[in-house]
Amino acid sequence: MFLGIDLGTSSVKAVLIDDNGERVDESVHALSVSTPQPTWSEQDPGAWWRAALAAVACLRAGLLPAVRAVGLSGQMHGAVLLDGQDHVIRPAILWNDGRAAAACNTLEQREPRSRAITRNQAMPGFTAPKLIWIAANEPANFRRIAHVLLPKDWLRLKLTGEFVSEPSDAAGTLWLDVAQRRWSTAMLAACELDARQMPRLVEGTEVSGQLTREAAKALGLRPGLPVAGGGSDNACGAVGFGIVGDGDAMLSLGTSGVIFVADAVVRSDPERGVHAFCHCVPRMWHRMAVTLSGAGTLSVVSRLVGAASEGALVAEVEAAGMMARAGSRLVMLPYFSGERTPHNDPTATGVFFGIDGATSRVDLGRAALEGVAFALADGLDALEASGLAIGSLDVIGGGSRSRLWGRIIATALDRPLVYRHGGDLGPAMGAARLARIAAGGTSLDEGCQRPAVSQVIEPEPVLAAALAPRRALFRRLYADLKPAFAGTIG
Q1: What is the pTM of this model?
Q2: Is 305 within 8 Å of 279 (Cβ atoms)?
């Protein structure tokens, strides 16, 4: 058996695969997010460890003695600050936190080569601007920093006692020379840090350390098991679906929404808010377009409209039929955590536009589904602006369970969506695959096979004609409201 642990934003997921790469068992333990101020997003790293222990404990106990290696996946960009005794200094600042917007300008002014080194535009969700914010606003905490870790790498420290990361997650810090896959002295200096405060780097397919006796006892595993380098959540999701070849592409519908394209060389377009990061397999990179509110949009909207759950709201929309009321111009901007691609705007907020006296809960639910689809279409346009066309997209993540949403997204993107078996496992499956490779249980090519196709959803011309005017209105609304968004935060 090989164990994959994925540290997400809303939960920790554990997956066991066997020596043939087949899923044997899985479990999930929920997490909560703290928002102490508007645009802030934090979590207690201790809650991650407790959730990881709980998720593994829910796997079939009889299978755990057979585990031969562990792999890790995790949410990107989070800042875990440790002092000289390896104690957590403050709650971790997460990927969807917007407080460091001004620090992005500071970073790029301090190091004018930033975009050439990191291949990315500085955005408040990334790790480096967070540290500039900490230095300016919490100087006492900043002076205590001995190490900075990403979320999954803090779990690795708990598992192995080692300070280690890998290029796919490290690329999202803005401290990595992405083309060279190594820490950039210049980018660290721009944040008043140095390489001694960074973890050493291994590839995602390599062994990063061994399970300590204490961690093994807590998890019910054998001590000394190898722990793979692993990867960021999106890169591991790609590995879980075999998205490891040049031009392979997928759509991830988790808390955020991501279009991911694997590349054999570094291809960057920071001015359009496209991310260019390392893949978690050697000698590969990838591009991403990210909308910060993906399936998380449904959680917010279902709560606002009083639906029993996200699934219940989607079922109501599906029961009402695909088409909106004739002449409806109800549009939702799903920017509940600001937005990345293509706007890079942490001040953007969620907006319903076009509500009238006949608007129902179903109408609002449909507008939410369409709004995320339109945001993803904006991201696809940014990815293709360089002239590299993207074909069909494999779909992973919790949002992949809704075929109604798939029809809307396929039509908005004008691309076929390919659904494969196990699409809801995503990053945890990729982490388990990396564990299997690192332990010598398989090769990269054999261990990253594509799962079997269960369904393909094609764009629908009639639906496309209905969506077109609302897509146009969606794009105009952001431009019209941008000045108002900027005025909402002091």
Answers
A1: 0.91
A2: no
